[in-house]
Amino acid sequence: MKIPFNVPYMSERELEYIKEAHSAGHLSGDGPFTKKCHEWIEKKTGCHKALLTTSCTTALEMTAVLAGVGPGDEVIMPSFTFVTTANAFVLRGAVPVFVDVRSDTLNIDETLVEEAITPKTKAIVPVHYAGVACDMDAITGIAAMNRLTMIEDAAQGVMANYKGQALGAIGRMGTLSFHESKNIICGEGGALLLNDPELAERAEIFWEKGTDRRDFYRKKIEKYTWRDLGSSCLPSDILAAALLSQLEEAEEITRRRFNIWSCYDKAFKNVAPEYGFSTPVIPDECDQNAHIYYLLAPDTDTRTRFMQTLHSAGIDASFHYIPLHSSPGGKRFGRSSGKLPVTSRVADQIVRLPIWIGMEDRLEYVVETAIRAMKR
After folding, report:
1. How far is the C-alpha of 334 from the C-alpha of 89, rounded, in Å?
2. For residues 136, 141, 146 and 150, what is the CA-based torsion angle, rounded to 10 degrees?
3. C-alpha closest to that of 350 among 303, 281, 313
4. Does residue 304 sit in the same domain as residue 350?
5. Which residues constitute the domain of residue 336?
6. What is the CATH number of the domain that holds 115?
7. Which of 143, 126, 100 is closest to 347 using CA atoms?
8. How many beta carbons lie within 10 A of that of residue 19, not counting itself?
9. Can you give the pLDDT at residue 244?
10. Of the candidates 269, 320, 330, which has an alpha carbon nearest to the alpha carbon of residue 292?
11. What are the tens digits of pLDDT across the range 63-89?
12. CA pair distance 211, 217, nearest whole angstrom
């Protein structure tokens, strides 16, 4: 039996909506389906304005510009994250400052954020790992007290909440991902969530290549022209059509993923510790979205043998990030605040198990194989 790590989900309406977009004759960005996606995201998250982007990377790059990040500024973030969390700010000349993560949620350790702040600090970027929220009360308080912009990297956080607030809609800005590896997908895509109305106009101008073309479409002006910095951030309305079909099924997609996640957790919660493994911790204030189910092996050698056993059985388990602070790019462009021992340990121990809609009939096989691998 071969069980891939991920199989992209397709809902019932993707092809229908794509055909409809083609028939309407608007294939480029900011078409009818893009607007419907914006409306859905704004209503679901409560953000002031949503803008679809070609990727979460693009959305993060937009936040760097909108936050006024420039050469010599410092931006605090976890080291245990994808490279674009840092690159978005490095491209503006800023220095990413890497902070260790918590051993329970694998999110940035909020107790270490303040000691990373210097007079050069411009922003804090909490990353909600596996769709489990960071301690947003603490981080929001630190950002406010130090007059820093807080930008949420909620790439993995669609349909997840912190104390009832949607991830991505808590900070001044937030970003989402709709990459094929995420829960809600359109192949490649993302969104910028604006929670500060003062940023909306400039965000739209940047989104439209630095022009005021949206005001032209609204018939507010007779001609549009170059106004400010900008880039080509809009995804095709074809992608928005595919995305809308998934957004409309987001509740069902999340429910089915959560059922798989819960089966894993029920099977491993008591067994894994007997063999030195640990399972995910979900704080009471967090409503997670079942994006990732992982195990932490007791050490690197055990992880290697464990994964070899799974792979031999046809189960495509995976590790995750190489910590940014130890990467060549991280050493070149960033700096660490402290030694980051938890980040280094977690990176050497984590094993992510397959979780995708349609694998339900193979779930028992994965669980039984994983338990046998632990015992070995």
Report:
1. 10
2. 30
3. 303
4. yes
5. 250-375
6. 3.40.640.10
7. 100
8. 12
9. 98
10. 320
11. 999 999 999 999 999 999 999 999 999
12. 12
Copy the structure tokens of residue 324: 């940014």
Q: What is the pLDDT of residue 104?
A: 97
User: For residue 159, which amino acid is it?
Assistant: M
User: Of the residues 200, 218, 247, which one is the last residue of a structural domain?
Assistant: 247
Q: Note the residue count of the chain.
A: 376
Residue indicated by tokens 């909490």: 126
Instruction: Tell whether 52 and 192 lie within a shared domain.
Output: yes
Given a cut of 90, is residue 163 above it in pLDDT? yes
CB neighbours (10 Å) of residue 273?
A: 11
Query: For residues 258, 348, 337 and 121, what is the CA-based torsion angle, rounded to 10 degrees?
Result: -40
Do 285 and 202 lie in one domain? The reply is no
